[in-house]
Amino acid sequence: MMPVSRRLAAASLACFVGLAGAASAEDIRIAHVYGKTGALEAYAKQSHIGLMMGLEYATGGTMEIDGRKIVVIEKDTQLKPDIGKAALAEAYGDDDAHIAVGPVSSGVALAMLPVAEEYGRILLVEPAVADSITGENWNRYIFRTGRNSSQDAIANAVALGAQGVTIATLAQDYAFGRDGVAAFRDALKDTGATLAFEEYAPTDAQDFTASAQRIFDALKDKPGRKFLFVIWAGANNPIGKIKAMEPERFGIEIASGGNILAAMQAYKALPGMEGATYYYYEIPQNPINDWLVSEHKKRHNSPPDFFTAGGMSAGIAIVEAIRKAGSTDTDALIAAMEGMEFETPKGKMVFRPEDHQALQSMYHFKIRVDPEVDWGVPELVRELKIEDMTIPIKTKQ
Q1: Using CB atoms within 10 A of its CB, is residue 159 exposed (0-12), middle (13-18) or buried (19+)?
Q2: 44, 377, 253, 169: CA torsion to nearest 10
Q3: Which InterPro entries match (predicted)?
Q4: Fewer CB atoms near the end CB (10 Å): N or C, the chain?
Q5: Where are the alpha helices (DSSP H) in the chain?
Q6: Terminal alpha carbon distance of the chain
């Protein structure tokens, strides 16, 4: 194998040629259709960096599979379902992409699913979360390396749920938030906890005073331990604003799942907070994550973030699938990917044959405050492995 420096140079050159030059008939064309602009831009940037690093890692820096050059085509959904739908159709139709990856938004993803079916090409969903993507709106061309709402919900229910616990939720009023709460509600049933109240706010909400007051009123007279569980993506995360309203006056604790590092700055005000996360760079212990952390720090002067790991997982899955199939033919890829096990920065993932959802570990954490770190540090309490969680199959039977 060539030295690392030469492999990275080869990767950089291949990426440049793939993005800027004309693709040949033998190239492997991957379309990354994601929200490069808009409220989830930070998520999108991480996802793309991770995707390119995953392709690089899995090909040993050559950016080739079986002698075929990888060409990555970028499309911006602008977080708009109609634009995402058109961009994916363009990727399959005009650019002849063999496989597409994305998007960031669950609402955009749901609009894109029928396009994959219409063109008979794979859409590898990363990082959109809503259960319905690999649930009631799923079709055979959809795979997902990102976690779904049920995986988030079950992990957080394990972290928070117990006999005598009462919980209220605050979530965004669109597919991500509503699917997340529905899954969390179902997951709590086996824990003995009670979900007493659900509050939904617009995705662009700035003022959470009224929402917080309704939640406080619903919880303040309840006996036992009380949580406000926040499910939020992107800008305007309400945790800091609600914490400033002193929910502890009513014995209410704030809880939330993992998030990007910038959002977890608000967690510094919540030492001891428990929840569950998809990824934090210090938690998984495996060679792929070691490489990701080391290389990301070298290249970007920062650790990899929440969605960087997801993007890398998608890149690795694509390379493994094409190698296993020996082809970019869609039916051959589907046959190769159903039940496929592959290693990622999180460890093992498995594409479940029934709905193509990647089964994977989640991490129960407790926040520790370190004055030298800008965010609340999620320390591992327990790894929830694939066999520890029963993730429901929600596709139409």
Answers
A1: buried
A2: 20
A3: BCAA_transport (IPR051010), Leu-bd (IPR028081), Peripla_BP_I (IPR028082)
A4: C
A5: 4-20, 41-58, 81-93, 106-119, 149-160, 175-188, 209-219, 239-243, 287-300, 306-325, 330-337
A6: 47
Report the distance separating Cα 263 and Cα 232, nearest Å: 10
For residue 187, the 8-state DSSP code is H
pTM summary value: 0.89
| Per-residue pLDDT reduced to its tens digit, 154-183 | 999 999 999 999 999 999 998 889 999 999
Q: How far apart are CA 113 and CA 127, in angstroms?
A: 14
Please tell me whether residue 228 adopts helix, strand or coil conformation.
strand
Sorted by where each starts, the structural domains of the chain and their CATH numbers stand as: 4-147+283-360 (3.40.50.2300), 150-277+363-388 (3.40.50.2300)
The C-alpha atoms of residue 115 and residue 120 are separated, in whole angstroms, by 8
DSSP annotation of 391: P
Strands 362-368 and 274-277: what pairing? antiparallel
Cβ atoms of 343 and 81 within 8 Å: the answer is no
Calpha distance 309→284 (Å, rounded):
11
Question: Token match 């999180």: residue?
Answer: 346
Residues in the chain: 397
CA 310, 311, 315, 321: dihedral to nearest 10 degrees? Answer: 40
What is the tens place of the pLDDT at every residue in 206-251?
Answer: 999 999 999 999 999 999 999 999 999 877 889 999 999 999 999 9
Residue-wise pLDDT tens digits, 8-28: 434 443 444 444 445 566 999
